């Protein structure tokens, strides 16, 4: 199509649009001339949401509400006239003379109004496809009011909950009074911004559940947030007391929301379309009694696995023993022996310094105060140094939390959670003098430990066998991050604000003046050398060629992206060097080089048996999941391939080379680029041809990589044989012939893993499907590999499985920057 005909199409389209608006064929808008009268409705453009009149169960009252238009149960996600129902079917929703959106009854009384000063009388309200009802002036298109600002009992993706600690303003979800009465009930939920922000559920004004503080990635009192299912949350801080919660779900076709029921139950529900359709809770805030706020009173902890569930913290005793023993825990516990600093104040005997007792895996108590100390030692000292401090905790992303006064709402988790250090008088700690009793009990304990060790090792042996089949979900508390490493890790976070700069002198010395003997390889835009610092630390050094003028952007991207990321499956950047013409990046050294050096080398591929390969697959998944979903940023790698997967001592994979990565804002899902970079063979069709990339283009590359790992063959190793098919075409052919076994690398002996390998082939084929929307997201892939999802969909024909394209000549990896394939996307780029 030439430009002329394109323009005329657009004009025609515009004319049609106007025509529709004026004459009522467009039915997503309310204006003063185009209002709705019970039982009329309007439907959003994509037909996802509908607005109209409805009656709740067992009620004849009429309310204006928004519901999902395409599901069999009318589920209002927003109700307008909650306080003043209509008692007949004479209701109208329209734009009033003052420009507000209003609900009127037959007598023209205003039952509900958007109640903003609009300064115009010709505004219109539009129901958007995300469920938002937006009142806008027809002139400038600014919104005057939105239903998302006044939520009812449902939080739908795209909505934002805001709170401001300075103005005290909060957007709250408020429950209905009962399933048949939408008026405002006693429960509400929103952000409590008073100290470290968290989400709180209130019964009137009493908190009854809370998430624990936000650490930049998760609410640390919700251990399920380690799981991918609840991911997509973000709590943005405007630096001025304002916080905004948003949730992004990768798959928009999937109907899910968070609802606060009239009984005060809060959870995530999913629409299940099977049978006639129903809502299913996929997560609930209160999973056991210990989730109920302050169940055990002050200075006590709650453990649902114990009976009774409440116990005083060590060094504390029930305030009222009778009540406590009859399981009335309201009064909580009190300190048995005053802290030393208190004894000083009261002129008592001094004794030794107070100490801290560590409580592991807890939901940290309420009323944490944030301290600016960033090391654990300093945090401990801050607490120790101030007599009003009774406990501290140190947690990645928040760093130092201190508590004064009472400790309320401590729950013990079986995994996850934080470590809480409680301040106790010296004599309450475990370091008492050894007496006879202790010796006797020690003997018993030693015996018990011996038995326990035997049990533990046999259990571990069994567990090892089991976990070899299990994909590890991305626990934020990676073993590598525990205890001292947490400090180290956090120090790194801080340091990386200004990435260490190495001097050129030092790097010249480390690499013996870039001696070719130390050259590890040639990257896309510069050689990589091995080096060694005087202290013995080995490094890999990428020297970017500035001569070509290229590499500068990659250098910046890589520094920005990777210095913000910390994950065991991503390669670590140690620092950089910019001096004169030189730009260099310094990484940790990976002794086993990259995956392709094993996979495609006939003499070394046998070193990777199936278990190692599967471990590598899992690791890549975890690294990708972190990039796509878990880190603060959302990152599309764009150049995932075997040579960018480095292997450490134990052959754990680490994703490297972020020079082409793109950072997405949390609410962005895809982007277009006029400059297609990447490696043929791993590029998804929409990226290679249209410059469109998203998480799903990384998934495509992962799929190719997965098939390469299984087959031990490169996509590009197929010219001229096997009937001129690519790896994908070959895999597809074998899949259809039911001969998957022929794809598997003969170098891996596998009878006992047959099923697992076939499953991987299946997943691989799902990842390389032609259309991005058909490809699973990375967290789904993990569940699939892990056999959590048992019934895998049937893959459709992969991209590139038939055509042998003319691109073959470019399929070697030397050319990383083919020219723009499509000129049109270049103009799109500037619009974003
Ligand atoms: C509606 O009324 C019927 C009969 O009184 C009752 O059985 C049912 O539980 C009610 N439903 C709701 C949601 O209140
Ligand atoms: C409506 O639901 C049906 C099945 O429940 C689905 O096939 C269809 O795509 C949906 N339409 C929209 C616009 O979501
Ligand atoms: C409905 O409510 C109006 C006031 O809003 C009242 O005047 C009228 O009598 C009511 N009708 C019925 C049938 O209850
Ligand atoms: C409109 O808002 C004003 C203050 O913002 C309030 O006083 C008034 O009661 C509101 N009116 C309605 C109908 O909600
Ligand atoms: C809107 O206001 C203008 C003047 O302010 C008036 O001429 C016009 O009739 C009004 N329109 C409606 C629909 O009330
Ligand atoms: C909410 O508070 C009311 C009154 O104080 C109480 O009866 C009810 O049990 C509470 N509900 C929950 C879920 O805490
Ligand atoms: C528990 O103790 C508190 C205060 O002593 C008292 O007010 C409350 O009624 C008691 N609750 C029960 C269930 O006995
Ligand atoms: C201890 O902390 C409290 C509360 O922040 C503060 O008011 C007080 O000055 C501190 N005391 C010392 C000795 O730092
Ligand atoms: C615990 O401390 C908080 C704030 O420091 C206070 O609001 C609350 O009332 C206290 N609770 C008890 C049981 O003392
Ligand atoms: C794989 O190789 C074939 C030719 O060998 C090529 O046409 C194709 O673009 C490559 N990429 C993919 C993803 O299949
Ligand atoms: C892209 O634009 C350049 C110059 O603007 C032109 O030379 C080239 O032919 C165009 N390519 C395509 C595929 O349209
Ligand atoms: C399979 C393999 O070559 N593993 C090596 C990885 O690197 C460590 C440390 O250099 C070697 O000890 C392993 O043999």
Structure notes:
This protein is α+β, with helices and mostly antiparallel strands and 832 residues long. The protein folds into 6 domains: 21-149, Bulb-type lectin domain (Agglutinin, subunit A, Orthogonal Prism); 154-287, Agglutinin, subunit A, CATH 2.90.10; 291-433, no CATH class; 434-467; 479-588, Phosphorylase Kinase, domain 1, CATH 3.30.200.20; 595-825, Transferase(Phosphotransferase), domain 1, CATH 1.10.510.10. The protein contains 16 helices and 44 strands. The two termini are 25 Å apart. Residues 1-26, 465-497, 719-724 and 803-832 have low confidence and may be disordered. Residues 591-592, 607, 649 line the site of one 2-acetamido-2-deoxy-beta-D-glucopyranose.
């Amino acid at each position: 199509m030439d430009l002329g005909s394109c323009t005329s199409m657009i004009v025609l389209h515009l004319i049609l649009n106007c025509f529709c608006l004026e004459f009522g064929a467009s039915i997503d808008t309310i204006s003063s001339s185009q209002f709705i009268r019970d039982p009329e409705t309007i439907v959003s453009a994509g037909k996802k949401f509908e607005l109209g009149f409805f009656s709740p169960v067992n009620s004849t009252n009429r309310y204006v509400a928004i519901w999902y238009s395409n599901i069999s149960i009318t589920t209002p996600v927003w109700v307008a006239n909650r306080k003043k129902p209509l008692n007949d079917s004479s209701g109208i929703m329209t734009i009033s003379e003052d420009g507000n959106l209003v609900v009127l009854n037959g007598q023209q009384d205003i039952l509900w109004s958007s109640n903003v000063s609009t300064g115009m009388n010709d505004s219109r309200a539009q129901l958007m496809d995300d469920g938002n009802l937006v009142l806008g002036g027809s002139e400038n298109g600014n919104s005057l009011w939105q239903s998302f600002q006044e939520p009812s009992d449902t939080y739908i993706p795209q909505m934002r909950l805001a709170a401001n600690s300075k103005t005290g303003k909060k957007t709250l979800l408020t429950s209905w009074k009962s399933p048949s009465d939408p008026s405002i009930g006693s429960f509400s939920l929103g952000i409590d911004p008073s100290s470290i922000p968290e989400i709180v559920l209130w019964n009137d004004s009493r908190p009854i559940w809370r998430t624990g503080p936000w650490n930049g990635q998760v609410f640390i009192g919700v251990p399920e947030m380690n799981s991918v299912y609840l991911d997509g949350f973000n709590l943005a801080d405007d630096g001025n007391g304002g916080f905004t919660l948003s949730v992004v779900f990768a798959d928009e076709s999937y109907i899910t929301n968070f609802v606060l029921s009239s009984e005060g139950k809060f959870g995530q529900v999913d629409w299940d379309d099977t049978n006639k359709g129903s809502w299913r809770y996929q997560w609930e805030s209160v999973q056991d009694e210990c989730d109920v706020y302050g169940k055990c009173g002050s200075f006590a902890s709650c453990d649902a696995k114990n009976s009774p569930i409440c116990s005083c913290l060590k060094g504390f005793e029930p305030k009222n023993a009778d009540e406590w023993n009859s399981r009335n825990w309201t009064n909580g516990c009190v300190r048995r022996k005053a802290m030393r600093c208190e004894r000083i104040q009261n002129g008592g005997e001094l004794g030794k310094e107070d100490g801290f007792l560590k409580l592991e895996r807890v939901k940290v108590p309420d009323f944490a105060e944030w301290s600016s100390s960033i090391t654990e030692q300093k945090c401990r000292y801050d607490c120790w140094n101030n007599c009003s401090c009774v406990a501290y905790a140190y947690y990645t992303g928040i760093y130092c939390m201190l508590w004064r006064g009472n400790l309320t709402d401590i729950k013990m988790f079986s995994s996850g959670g934080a470590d809480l250090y409680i301040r106790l008088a010296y004599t309450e700690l475990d370091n008492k003098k050894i007496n006879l009793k202790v010796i006797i009990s020690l003997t018993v304990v030693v015996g018990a430990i011996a038995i326990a060790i035997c049990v533990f090792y046999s259990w571990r042996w069994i567990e090892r066998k089991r976990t070899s089949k299990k994909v590890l979900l991305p626990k934020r508390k990676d073993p590598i991050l525990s205890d001292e490493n947490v400090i180290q890790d956090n120090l790194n976070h801080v340091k990386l604000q200004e990435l260490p700069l190495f001097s050129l002198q030092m790097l010249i010395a480390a690499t013996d003046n870039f001696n070719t003997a130390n050259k590890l390889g040639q990257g896309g835009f510069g050689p990589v050398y091995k080096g060694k610092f005087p202290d013995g630390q080995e490094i890999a050094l990428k020297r970017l060629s500035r001569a070509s003028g290229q590499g500068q952007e990659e250098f910046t991207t890589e520094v920005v992206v990777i210095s913000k990321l910390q994950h065991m499956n991503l390669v670590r950047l140690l620092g950089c060097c910019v001096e004169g013409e030189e730009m260099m990046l310094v990484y940790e050294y990976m002794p086993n080089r990259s995956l392709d050096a094993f996979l495609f080398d006939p003499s070394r591929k046998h070193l990777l048996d199936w278990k190692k390969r599967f471990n590598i697959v899992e690791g890549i998944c975890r690294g990708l999941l972190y990039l796509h979903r878990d880190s603060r940023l959302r990152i599309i790698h764009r150049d995932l391939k075997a040579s960018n997967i480095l292997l450490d001592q134990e052959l754990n994979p680490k994703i490297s080379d972020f020079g082409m990565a793109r950072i997405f804002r949390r609410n962005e899902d895809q982007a277009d680029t006029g400059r297609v970079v990447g490696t043929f063979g791993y590029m998804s069709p929409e990226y290679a041809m249209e410059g469109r990339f998203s998480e799903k283009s990384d998934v495509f590359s992962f799929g190719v990589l997965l098939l390469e790992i299984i087959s031990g063959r490169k996509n590009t190793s197929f010219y001229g044989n096997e009937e001129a098919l690519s790896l994908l075409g070959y895999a597809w052919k074998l899949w259809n012939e039911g001969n998957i076994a022929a794809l598997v690398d003969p170098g891996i002996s596998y009878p006992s893993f047959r099923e697992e390998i076939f499953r991987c082939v299946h997943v691989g084929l799902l990842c390389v499907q032609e259309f991005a929307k058909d490809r699973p997201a990375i967290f789904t892939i993990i569940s699939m590999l892990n056999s959590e999802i048992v019934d895998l969909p049937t893959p459709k024909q992969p991209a590139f499985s038939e055509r042998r394209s003319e691109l073959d000549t470019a399929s070697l990896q030397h050319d990383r920057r083919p020219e723009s394939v499509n000129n049109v996307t270049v103009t799109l780029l500037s619009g974003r």
